């Protein structure tokens, strides 16, 4: 999601991220050298057992390293906020990672989920083209939202009293007004291990707001066959993100809040009967 130009660059975060990628590169190089040294002192049973190639840094990581080392633009989240998601991705990756929003941190998320599936959903078609021209490896889809921020209060009141909104089903079959039904087919058919809600735009009255994105993320998590989904919502300092995440992701599933980021761990509701919120 393209942000207003008034956001202050986080120089320290940029330096830390760049340093992290450099450290990762160093580890890979040392690992490669260590393997080579071991081979010099080891006589294999068969010549074909000897690796002939050194370990190379994955293209996604090298691209991210160059990007963050040379760019004046830093990710939209703070280091402390990113660290919360990083701990989950360290444990779950490679995994299926769905991100509402396409922005300056997208390359970071793809790199942290190296080897997994990372998909971005974005409302601004021109912004998608701009990012794809620079990073063609990112998987992104255009999404059209049919809500506006001025509807938020009415949508919250109506949805909380509508039994259809507490029914666990595929979002395409849901009769809840908040369920997103126009997403790409792949998005509905994949069981997402991690979902990040950092879009659509929600900072002015004419913006679509994140009401449907938050609700649909929770519905996808509950509708998986088994296990749990880690759902993150950014900008919870704002009214919509605050109220809708508490209402539809549930305070009982809230595991942590760091700055403007909330982390919910939502279990499958298909393996056994559960109330919508614990």
From TrEMBL:
<dbReference type="GO" id="GO:0000139">
    <property type="term" value="C:Golgi membrane"/>
</dbReference>
<dbReference type="Pfam" id="PF21729">
    <property type="entry name" value="IRX15_IRX15L_GXM"/>
</dbReference>
<dbReference type="GO" id="GO:0045492">
    <property type="term" value="P:xylan biosynthetic process"/>
</dbReference>
<keyword id="KW-0812">Transmembrane</keyword>
<protein>
    <submittedName>
        <fullName>Uncharacterized protein</fullName>
    </submittedName>
</protein>
<keyword id="KW-0472">Membrane</keyword>
<keyword id="KW-1133">Transmembrane helix</keyword>
<dbReference type="InterPro" id="IPR006514">
    <property type="entry name" value="IRX15/GXM/AGM"/>
</dbReference>
